[in-house]
Amino acid sequence: MKFYIVRHADKEAGDFFNPVLNHQDQPISKKGIRESKELASYFSGKEISDIYISSYIRTGQTIEYVAREKNITPVIDERLNEIDNGCIDGMKDSEIKEKFPEVWNAYMERTEDFQFPEGESGRQAQERIRNFLEEKKNRPGDGDIIAVCHDGLIRLAVCYVVNIPVFKRWQFKADTCGITEVEYSKDFQEWRLNRFNQKYE
């Protein structure tokens, strides 16, 4: 079974704060709508059995055309939510550096994992996507899975699959609607990274 882990489409700028998520919850932009339509073409010939999305509105909008073509209702799974940045979310770099110098230094050095104030560490966030992948890999059926989520979580998923430390995640970057394909080999009992950040153009 393959997992197609897709970053959400381009999002609108502006203030779309969602108190339930305690984060900005931007819808996709006009560019994002074009990107989401192109995703439908990419997945048209692929056997997809399930689609999972994060709690953010942009992930559902991103996969809308694919879901409609496949006649699949996307399922929200909070494990696919973006890394919780805690109280630094929305702060400027200068504010973070002044108020949380230790966190800023850890972010700049990138030699070990750290936790955002009132938020998650890289390892805590990775545990969510690890749990999702490990649970779904043994799901019965032949169809593949699409999971629509966020740049930070995709980078952590790659770290898990290729077995490198979470603080190495900044060496990767997922573009909007970039497709990362991972697969679990039951024969060798290991994960494979088939492709990273593929674009459909």
Mean pLDDT: 93
Tell me, what's the shape? globular
Distance between the termini: 24 Å
Number of domains: 2
Q: Please state the structural category.
A: alpha/beta
The total count of strands amounts to 8
Describe the structure.
- By secondary structure, this protein is an alpha/beta fold.
- The protein has two domains: 2-83 and 121-198, Phosphoglycerate mutase-like (Rossmann fold), CATH 3.40.50; 85-119, no CATH class.
- The chain is built from seven helices and eight strands.
- The strands form two sheets. It has a six-stranded mixed sheet.
- A hairpin with a 4-residue loop joins strand 7 (179-185) and strand 8 (190-198).
- Helix 1 packs parallel to helix 3 (64-70) and helix 4 (93-99) packs across helix 5.
- The longest helix has 15 residues, at 122-136.
Summarize this, please?
With 201 residues, the chain is an alpha/beta fold. It has 7 helices and 8 strands; from the N terminus they run βββαβααβαααβαββ.
Question: What brief labels describe this structure?
Answer:
201 residues; alpha/beta; Rossmann fold; 2 domains; 6-stranded mixed sheet; two-stranded antiparallel ribbon; 20% strand; globular
